[in-house]
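Homework help board

Subject: predicted structure for assignment chain

Our instructor gave us this sequence and asked us to write out the predicted structure in token form, then describe one feature. I got the tokens but I'm not sure how to describe them. Can anyone check?
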Amino acid sequence: MIKRGVSVVWESAGVVVDAAMSSYDVVMLMVCVSLVVGSALAGCNGDPGDGEAPRDLTLVQPAAPRAPVRLALVDAFPALPIARPIMMRQPPGDRSTFYIAEQSGKIYRAHTHASQAELVLDLSQHAADAGASEDVTGLLGMDLSPRWRHDRSAYIYYTSSSSSAPSGIRVNVARIALRGDGKFEQPQRPLVAVDMPGAQSLGGHTLFGPDGQLYVGIGDGGQGESGAARDPRGLLGTIVRIDVDSRMSEVYAQGFRNPWRFSFDRVTRTLWLGDPGVARYEEIDRVLPGGNYGWSACEGAHRFDPKNPNDPNSGLCAEPDVVSPVLAYTHEELGGGAAIIGGFVYRGSAIAGLVGSYIFGDFVHGTIWRLVTDGAGKVGKEIILQTGENVIASFSEDLDGELYALQLDGRILQIVAR
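My token output:
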């Protein structure tokens, strides 16, 4: 039975965050949720990450490569008819196969340099039925089970319609299993379902970490003024970590505007995230368990005033216990608006001068950078490639650690040496 007027109540296998106590109507987690940010699944199932969680707990940045790199972008699937690709994954142990997710709600299976792809899931009728702009709704994220040999399944993040949501949009995270005919089943009961207060900043990332847990990035729903991302009772503006076996969960970190893309360094296990700003600053965060990243009291390393969001004299953020970004840059630096796309620390073998560099991009300007540090340890960014405007939706990493830029014009471009 659900009691009204409390922030968290239990009902069968789910947890409901009461609408009266939150900035949005309903949050349903089919898991055990720890709303004490950063707890280690205490009281649920111990800590499944013991001995396996990311071990690099310092703020030491990847060393800046000393040698200059000369790079190019090569179309990895020049004849593949893909529209608006937003994620690409390789199943563990299979270097010849790629699963490619389209924002429309379709997932394709393709082989290296293929000219054709097999449709293995179509939920476009549901994923695109949220009634908002195609730029923010649809199928937004996908990852494959790390135990692919024994568990041929994917975990997807997608939008659907909701009559109970102020925006009409619900975001869902669900497991889909690969059937005997080689196609994915339709999603059933979601692991996470969140009714969004607004039609922007929906998040959209699902990623298995080195601890075997599923990390999910949920946006603030465009409700920066409400402070929803700092509400310890809610899930807006958070990264949620889920044990997919027990369906138990915790809020891993909070205070994000739109955790669209993040990744683990496969060597140090550091979790890197690009968080798009709304007014002046884009930022890169090194995500620590239990970390509070300040939105919407802060944007970048500066105070954020929703009544005067573009104030260049806002001053530094002085909120207690807020983790400062590794790097923040202004929109003015790029000559206009911007939207950061988080990437990867390069750990491939084809580009020696790039190893150890965090690679990220910008949707609006199509720029691709790497993080660099100078002799004094100051962190900056260096342009390494330039693509077209308004096209970079995501970056992907193959099993060998090589990187790809996924573009909304349908191209999937591999970053290569030249």
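Reply (TA_rk): Your tokens look well-formed. For the description, you could write something like this. Residues 8-40+58-417 form a domain with the Neuraminidase fold (CATH 2.120.10.30). That's the kind of observation they're looking for.
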